[in-house]
Amino acid sequence: MRREFEHGDAVSWDTSQGKTEGRVVRKQTSQTKIKGHIVKASAENPQYIVESDKSGKRAAHKPEELRKV
């Protein structure tokens, strides 16, 4: 079962500093760059661009790394 998220969904994910919460900005289905890193997203393997509530920074995560809050 594939996890699906929509723009604005509140989500959490694990980081090296602990659990972080934020919001889904968009579903990424094509390759892009974030902070100099290549995000290898595709229609078959989408990733979600999320924005941290605490820092305001954006990152890409695979659906299985995210949990709805």
From TrEMBL:
Residues 51-69 have a biased composition (Basic and acidic residues). InterPro entries: Hva1_TUDOR (IPR021331). Residues 1-32, 49-69 are annotated as: Disordered. Coiled coil: none annotated. Residues 8-66 form the Hypervirulence associated protein TUDOR domain. This is Hypervirulence associated protein TUDOR domain-containing protein.
